[in-house]
Amino acid sequence: MDSNAVLDIGLQALVVAAKLAAPVLITALVVGFAISLFQSITQIQEVTLSFVPKAIAVSLALLITGHWMIAEIVSFTHAMFDKIPGLLGG
């Protein structure tokens, strides 16, 4: 196994991790921005006002994209297991 193969596997892992984290992070970002905008307009500074909607939105994002996330990680894992014989030189 050479260093190019290791770098390729590492790059693929980072891309898959970014793809899996994106729906949750983008949802939290958008909801957090909307709540912050609402708080700055109304000058209501309540901590739970920012936490509860964000937690609900992230939960919904996980419910909606969960099946896709599992399919992506299973596909990546199968691809890695399929690469093992080639990486070992067999």
The portion of residues assigned to helices is over 70%
Euclidean distance between termini CA atoms: 11 Å
What form results from the Cα inertia axes? Answer: elongated
Largest sheet: none
Task: Tally the helices.
Answer: 2
By helix and strand content, what is the structural category? Answer: mainly alpha
N-to-C series of helices and strands:
HH
Low-confidence stretches: none
Domain tally: 1
How large is the radius of gyration? 20 Å
Beta strands, count = 0
How much of the sequence lies in strands comes to under 5%
Overall mean pLDDT: 92
Oligomer: single chain
What's the short version?
This protein has helices at residues 3-42, 47-88. With 90 residues, the protein is mainly α. α1 (3-42) packs antiparallel against α2 (47-88).
Question: Could you explain the architecture of this structure?
Answer:
InterPro entries: Bac_export_3, FliQ. Role in flagellar biosynthesis. Pfam families: Bac_export_3 (PF01313). It comes from Glaciibacter psychrotolerans. The protein has 90 residues and is mainly α. The protein has one domain. It is built from two helices and no strands. The longest helix has 42 residues.
Based on the model shown, name its key terms.
90 residues, 91% helix, transmembrane helix, Bac_export_3, mainly alpha
Architecture blueprint of SSEs:
Blueprint: H1 3-42, H2 47-88
Helix pairs in contact: 1-2
